[in-house]
Amino acid sequence: MATLAELAAARAGLDEATIDHLLRLTASWSLLADLAFSDLVLMAPEIVGAGAEGQLVVLGQVRPNNRATVITADLVGTAHRADDWPLVRRALADGERVTGYASPEVIGEPTLVWAVPVRVSGTVVAALVRLQGPMRGPSSLYEQAYLSIFVRLCDMVAASTFPFREDDVAGPGLPRVGDGIILLDGAGRVDFATPNAVNALHRVGVSASVEGRTLPELGLHLRALERARAFAMPTLEELDRGIDVAIVFHCVPLLEAERPSAVMVLVRDVSDLRRLNRVVLSKEAAVREVHHRVKNNLQTISSLLRLQARRSAERETRTALLEAERRVRSIAVVHEVLSREPGEDVSFDEIVRSLVLLVEDTVLALHPVEIVVSGELGVLATDVATPLAVVLAELLTNAVEHAFVDFTVGDPDPVGVVTLRLARDGEHAVAEVRDNGVGVGADFSLDAPTSLGLSIVRDLVRTQLRGRIDVTTMGPQSGGGTLVRVEVPLVAWR
To answer: Is the whole model's pTM more than 0.85, yes or no?
Structure first.
């Protein structure tokens, strides 16, 4: 199904600024639907397509959370004859709110309909349509108060002062009506407060009756409220009482002639949410600490292997211990990154930078060797990142140590180049290690590797990573050397 932005551009011919205004309106109109106890539909003249003249296209639809819906069908993207919606047609033409009874085909019975023009930069571009369902007896004081706020917000929609541009405090994050509402008049006195709002005030220490009094008189000083009244813009503030109570106050000014005539304060008790956040942060800290300790333990093992290598008189033993030490350090690199950003995924590009430094610091070559990295793999699952880090460390080390034995290119001081190219090929991670060295022999086969390092690489790629590895000797026309390509599927690790 097409999005509001796609429908507004393709079928209503609206520009980007207008679409942005409509997106902000629909981001916060669940509040409007609850205040009106009604379904809301956003309609615009359809001007694109065969037979579009005289039709209206539905750009959006929202149902109330506190009343049964009167529209069971999904109307978004549907076209309707403007003659079937005379109130909407008048609102679009006159730029004024129109109210009356009608029998829309989507409902099939007489229904109270409000058509509110949506104005952007002085031009009416759409209509906000309220379709009121049957009311349950006489309206209560709270329902009357809700509807009075809805009327004011409709006037702001028609005047292009609602929605606000401050999405972070007046957009999708707005609390629901049921969370609690306090309505303050122009003098800052409480006109009414819902029971949930009163309960929230009790939790921050306000126990006196609130109606007819200002919040400062009640001992509640909200800087957000003063900013909302002074600057005619929505603001929010969170009040904490110890570590167990946290109440968020969303202060939304209700404007007349672009000046605040009242303020609607949406109150939400977020104590449980903050408590959950603390638990999550505590667990993240514990996970970071685990990775930090694993990294430290691996570095301790690495140091022990390096010390043992120095004490070994046999060259082969010393070489084997140093190779094992480097492999342990390559695993420690992954845990070092995870100790800073715990989770099931890790930024592999950061690991690659550390691996290159590791190889440059630990491997000695007979000739100058330069390692060049291009491309990136982005974020990978840790189950992929750890063995892949070991594989790349082995391949880079192998290239630096063995690709340039008896290396001659006609230069008295030859320089070897090892390139590591990283890329995502569809659902695969691809790593290519290329050198301009002497290449591998004609009888080389990964099924019968000549070193422990290549055996480790082959087994990790084929079994643990479930990927494939290919080794190719490049001809003189391609610059010579060896190309090792590793391809790892990513779908299996999601």
So the answer is: no
